[in-house]
Design brief:
The protein has a single domain, classed as 2-Layer Sandwich (Thymidylate Synthase, Chain A), CATH 3.30.572.10. Strand 1 and strand 2 form a beta hairpin. With about 280 residues, it is an alpha+beta fold. The protein is globular, with a radius of gyration of 18 Å. Strands 1-2-8-7-6-5 form a 6-stranded mixed beta sheet.
Amino acid sequence: MKEYLELCQRVIDTGVWVENKRTGKRCLTIINADLEYDVSDGTLPVMTTKKLLWKPAIGEMLGYLRGYTSAAQFRSIGCNTWNANANDNPDWLANPFRKGEDDMGRCYGAQGRDWRNPEGEQIDQLRMLYDDLRQGIDNRCEVMTFMNPGERDRACLNPCMHTHTFSILDGKLYLTSYQRSCDIPLGVPFNMVQVGWLLMIMAQITGLKAAKAFHKLINVHVYEDQLELIRDVQLKREPYPLPKLKINPDIKTLEDLETWVTPDDFELEGYQHHPGIKFPFAV
């Protein structure tokens, strides 16, 4: 949590104002930052200087792993984060590839579970790395990427946290996650939970021990209508100790994640937090 708060202050102190064409808002912006999470004892990097709805964060990542491409599918597991991007984004509404209400297009889940090679054959990235990790194989290619340059025009939003690389070292599982666009008041706290959760759940279903996650941030920014709240409210608060994530021990395989698992199969122990902050969301 200290790393995150220091990063927020760094953006405020050294950021440069940039006009964002997609949202029509200015952003105070820096380039390049790194966060690191040791989840070996079950500690989950959950925001404590404001209340975070952590179950929707897990639900969203669970939807990606299942290959969801509809906001309705995400709503069915308690995650509403895709409603606006699927249905309120003018550029996407006018896109000829949009299939109708709630359609997200070829982003995130479509790429992770249904990448297409030049012959049109399905490539299931998640299944491939899962099968390797279960056998203790790390060929330095245990990568799942949601970024497909050939289909960027067929998605309601280009993936922000776009690539996850798994590594095995001495029987322990590590994760490096890359994020191109980082809304630090709203998006990054959500993504921090997802990075920690992804490492822990993949360790559980592959029989490995979770170690550390490395979260690499590229364009880190605060929108102009978020600045006052993060500077004058959130950064004035003292963080609490981080909570521990308890995972249903019956989750043992990728098939479990694909079928019956819900965000209610995860519990946080000792989650103390300050009141929530309603940061504006930019579509």
